[in-house]
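Why should sequence recovery work at all? Because a backbone constrains its sequence more than one might expect. Tight turns favour small or flexible residues, buried strands favour hydrophobic ones, and helices have their own preferences. The token representation captures these environments compactly. In the example below, the structure is given first.
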């Protein structure tokens, strides 16, 4: 018993020591690689406010959009590795290495995973008056068109929604023509106005238009149906077993950040994500909160980099 109590005291002391070593003496900046007002930005601001309360340290959200997120990523890669500068990214971070052949930072080596805050599915949407009720209807129409391609809007060239649409087209042998937009908002607007027959956009960006009856969703890219859209079947249910394409959102730090700091940030953020109010707010936006370790998140990023690199090469998306 004496030995057990001594070991318990040692573990407690080491835990307290780790937390002390992870103290933040400077304000924390969360760099967002997208403009203010978007889903990733709003998520960063919600987490930043909660983090400030938990740590008792100022947390600032700084938007550095441009070059598909590479400008903000380079800034964080070059920042002091002390936990005071974090990068809020989504799956585009894993797509970019397969698209951009010459980056002035190394996405695989210059960053350390902190936490995967949640995933969000994409939805295939159509105008409210569209005759398409399912992916089978799209396939049938394409057969009748005898070789013609059907346009689909996405949130931009090389975005997770673009690649999700291409992956779906391959899985179901659909002849689709990509139409890139400058963000999910403009894509949703044009689908609702019947300017384009299909759109692959994030569930969060389409939810209000769907609920207002201005467009319909006919498929979701997640492995399971979404709680907010229980009547919308998955792509997997409609002829592509095992299909899944979700966009994750997470926080990264410069690669040389001490392990104690990364673990402390992960622990605090995990506690924030476990709060019922936070979970409810994220789920209302279409997110599925995650419970991954830093190692699991790092492995997810690595596997997505490999997967999207293969797809980008096959689509000819590389940029010199």
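From this structural description, the recovered sequence reads:
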């Amino acid at each position: 018993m004496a030995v057990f109590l001594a070991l318990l005291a040692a573990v407690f002391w080491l835990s307290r020591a780790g937390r002390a070593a992870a103290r933040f003496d400077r304000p924390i900046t969360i760099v967002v690689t997208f403009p203010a007002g978007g889903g990733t930005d709003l998520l960063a601001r919600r987490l930043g406010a909660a983090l400030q309360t938990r740590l008792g340290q100022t947390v600032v959200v700084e938007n550095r959009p441009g070059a598909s997120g590479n400008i903000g990523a380079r800034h964080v890669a070059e920042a002091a590795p002390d936990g005071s500068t974090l990068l809020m990214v989504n799956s585009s971070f894993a797509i970019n290495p397969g698209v951009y052949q010459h980056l002035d930072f190394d996405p695989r080596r210059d960053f350390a995973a902190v936490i995967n805050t949640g995933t969000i599915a994409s939805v295939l949407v159509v105008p409210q008056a569209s005759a398409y009720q399912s992916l089978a209807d799209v396939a049938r129409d394409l057969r009748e068109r005898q070789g013609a391609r059907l346009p689909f809007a996405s949130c931009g060239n090389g975005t997770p929604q673009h690649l999700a649409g291409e992956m779906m087209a391959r899985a179901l042998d659909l002849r689709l023509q990509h139409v890139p937009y400058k963000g999910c908002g403009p894509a949703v607007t044009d689908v609702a106005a019947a300017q384009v027959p299909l759109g692959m956009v994030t569930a969060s960006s389409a939810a209000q238009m769907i609920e207002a009856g201005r467009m319909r969703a006919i498929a979701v890219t997640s492995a399971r149906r979404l709680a907010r859209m229980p009547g919308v079947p998955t792509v997997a249910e409609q002829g592509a077993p095992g299909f899944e394409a979700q966009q994750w959102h997470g926080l990264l730090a410069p690669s040389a950040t001490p392990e104690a700091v990364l673990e402390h940030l992960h622990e605090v953020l995990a506690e924030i994500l476990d709060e019922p109010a936070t979970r409810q707010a994220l789920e209302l936006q279409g997110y599925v909160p995650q419970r991954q370790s830093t190692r699991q998140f790092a492995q997810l990023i690595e596997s997505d980099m490999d997967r999207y690199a293969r797809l980008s090469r096959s689509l000819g998306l590389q940029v010199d």
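A few observations help interpret the result. The CA atoms of residues 94 and 304 lie 6 Å apart.
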